[in-house]
Amino acid sequence: MNVIVNGALGRMGQQVCKLLDENGLTLAAAVDRAGGEGVYQNLTDYTGPADVVIDFSNHASAAELVDYCKARNLPLVAATTGYTPEEFAILEEGAKTVPIFQSYNMSVGVALLARLVKQAAAIFGGCDVEIIEAHHNRKADAPSGTALLLADAVKEKRPDSEYVFGRSGQHKRQPNEIGIHALRMGNVVGEHEVIFATDNQTISLKHQAHDRALFADGAIAAARFIVTQAPGFYHMDDLLGP
Ligand SMILES: NC(=O)c1ccc[n+]([C@@H]2O[C@H](COP(=O)([O-])OP(=O)(O)OC[C@H]3O[C@@H](n4cnc5c(N)ncnc54)[C@H](OP(=O)(O)O)[C@@H]3O)[C@@H](O)[C@H]2O)c1
């Protein structure tokens, strides 16, 4: 399978390029706006053989990316984060013509966690739910997009949920609260724990990322999946199967 990697010089792009060979896949073209030796500056500069595009570049490239995939009838794995609503709509529109796989967290483990969280939220309808996430001390945004994704998974089963970010002062906990707490420390790659507590038991579901390579692994798994699909908009839950 011939893979075009867009954003190939970035941290994630480099990981993907490194892992392709180990996974028996071929790097068709490395693309990054900086260009350089063996790196195409623009997607349109590459017209050779290709089966799929993996994108870890920047949300602003959405239109160019979708135009390229549509013009060449190529499936796309859109792993970049931070799409504006307009850019996201471009992906959704593109998915009417070519298969597009999109996830803000390419970890198969987190996808499984979200599924388990939905199950627990449905079974323990009235319990208290708290989410704790931890990341390295360089991360600027809080809470993480993944913590919100997990809160949304609970809310899907408990639509009256209200998110409470951190807690201090004199406020009694409301039954429909989902407490979301962010720790920033050291070099932690990413940890997410969802706790379900009733009066007499606690269930804790936790995912720990040890290496950013897991996102590259997930993107490669998504690429293998998407090349066999019809046009449409796909997500990690589709990859997990029924
Ligand atoms: N879905 C997931 O699981 C997941 C996991 C990790 C990261 N991400 C996301 O993936 C993206 C990349 O992350 P990263 O840590 O690898 O960032 P990074 O190190 O900044 O790499 C991005 C690369 O893409 C290049 N680039 C920017 N705009 C481009 C364009 N229009 N066309 C081609 N290349 C372009 C950048 O060039 P310059 O250096 O010149 O800007 C840079 O070389 C981010 O949005 C990040 O949040 C997603």
In short:
With 242 residues, the protein is an alpha/beta fold. Bound molecules: NADP nicotinamide-adenine-dinucleotide phosphate.
Structure description:
The protein has 2 domains: 2-106 and 213-240, Rossmann fold (3-Layer(aba) Sandwich), CATH 3.40.50; 108-209, Dihydrodipicolinate Reductase, domain 2 (2-Layer Sandwich), CATH 3.30.360. It contains 7 helices and 12 strands. It has helices spanning 11-22, 62-72, 85-94, 108-123, 145-157, 213-226, 236-240, and strands at 2-6, 26-31, 39-40, 52-55, 76-78, 99-102, 128-135, 162-165, 177-184, 190-197, 202-209, 232-234. The strands form 2 sheets. A 7-stranded parallel beta sheet has the order 3-2-1-4-5-6-12, sandwiched between helices. The chain has a 5-stranded mixed beta sheet with strand order 8-9-7-10-11, covered by helices on one side. A hairpin with a 4-residue loop joins strand 10 and strand 11. Helix 1 (11-22) packs across helix 6. The mean pLDDT is 96. The structure holds NADP nicotinamide-adenine-dinucleotide phosphate.
CATH topology value of the largest domain? Rossmann fold
Figure out the total of helices. Answer: 7
- Give the tally of β-strands: 12
Global geometry: elongated
How big is the Rg? 19 Å
Instruction: Kindly estimate the percentage of residues that lie in beta strands according to DSSP.
Output: 25-35%
User: Which structural category do the helix and sheet elements fall into?
Assistant: alpha/beta
What ligand species are in this complex? NADP nicotinamide-adenine-dinucleotide phosphate
Number of domains: 2
Adjacency order of strands in the biggest sheet? 3-2-1-4-5-6-12
Uncertain stretches of 5 or more adjacent residues: none
CATH superfamily of the largest domain: NAD(P)-binding Rossmann-like Domain
Second CATH tier, the architecture of the largest domain? 3-Layer(aba) Sandwich
The level-1 CATH class of the largest domain:
Alpha Beta
One letter per element, helices H and strands E, the order comes to EHEEEHEHEHEHEEEEHEH
